[in-house]
Amino acid sequence: MCRTDNGISKSSQKRNRQKIGPRRLIFIAVAMYVGICILVAMFERRLIYFPTRDYEGTPNDIGLDYQPVTFTSEDDARLTGWYVPCADATYTILFCHGNAGNISHRLSTIQILHQLRYDVFIFDYRGFGHSGGTPTERGLYADAAAALKYLTTTRGQPNDRIVFCGRSLGGAVAIELATHDSPPALVVESTFTKLADVGRLHYPYLPVRLILRDRFDSLQRIQRLTCPKLILHGSDDTLIPINLGCRLFDAASEPKAFIETPGGHGEAGFAYSPEFTKKLGDFLTSTLSSRE
Fold it and tell me: Domain count of the chain?
């Protein structure tokens, strides 16, 4: 039998390789999996927030007067927004946008809310648009609180005249804000129960709950809200499926309403068609008039 210099036969070496081969494969697979988890954890916020800096337009481009606003959060983030007045409005809608772009990508939303005869205050979170800083969950909550403080302190608007409205990730921000300052009405659309539920849908083989630092747990928070709530969700939403919106609605206490609209994540909600814009208007009119 042929032997190597150290006295071990080639056939014995082959048998040894066959024995340890699967273990090495398992070790490599585990190492790669752990490495992927570490990379996802390191770049988590790049997978959540997609801000852009440049404006694509202003309310003037859709025939609306507006006031550019600069204000500061409690942790000194310099924030920017637009205040869009409506001549005969008696309520203001504080709008929290989603996780991508900036306020200039919400001109159609501003126009719809203005047509419903509401003042609109829309702002950019830190790191979005012309706002300074870097987005985080805690930071976004602080930014929304600062936006509300601007309305109540700088503009002198009563809390009970400010409706909170949020879309997608902004729905989670609006819900969190409502746990501290109960609004006369809360409107959220295309939003989720908690971010981990969305993560598990899109990354089913990763331990999302262990990795996430920014959690946006709206499911736990909405149970504590006593204000009137309207939840809208698109039936064809693949980014945040409608079952998450339904679960959020089920967890909410009365008074509440749910509206299913056609469309996917980008086009569903009260902006989908005049029919659903009217439903939003009817909800707000009914809810707010009952307070008069």
Answer: 2
Mind spelling out the 3-state secondary structure of 121-137? EEEECCCCCCCCCCCCH
Handedness of CA 173, 179, 180, 184 (dihedral sign): positive
Indicate the angle between helix axes 169-178 and 137-149, nearest 10 degrees: 60
User: Domain for residue 14, yes or no?
Assistant: yes
Per the CB < 8 A criterion, the answer to whether 174 and 98 are in contact is no
How is residue 35 annotated by DSSP?
Answer: H
- 55 and 105 Cβ atoms separated by less than 8 Å: no
Report helix, strand or coil for 194: coil
Confirm if 100 and 258 have CB atoms less than 8 A apart: no
- Given a contact cutoff of 8 angstroms between Cβ atoms, the answer to whether 195 and 168 are in contact is no
Residue 48 lies in a domain: no
Q: For the chain, 292 residues long, give each residue's pLDDT as a single digit of tens.
A: 444 445 445 555 555 555 557 777 766 666 666 666 566 666 676 778 999 999 999 999 999 999 999 999 999 999 999 999 999 999 999 999 999 999 999 999 999 999 999 999 999 999 999 999 999 999 999 999 999 999 999 999 999 999 999 999 999 999 999 999 999 999 999 999 999 999 889 778 776 777 888 999 999 999 999 999 999 999 999 999 999 999 999 999 999 999 999 999 999 999 999 999 999 999 999 999 987 7
Residue 95 tokens read as 């709008």
Q: Give which of 95, 23, 106, 93 is closest to 62, Cα–Cα.
A: 106
Q: Which of 176, 147, 178 lies closest to 80, judged by CA?
A: 147
The candidate with the shortest Cα–Cα distance to 289, out of 91, 121, 112, is 91
Query: How far apart are the C-alpha atoms of 285 and 292, rounded to whole Å?
Result: 11
In a domain? residue 62: yes
In a domain, 94, yes or no: yes
**Same domain flag for 256 and 195:** yes
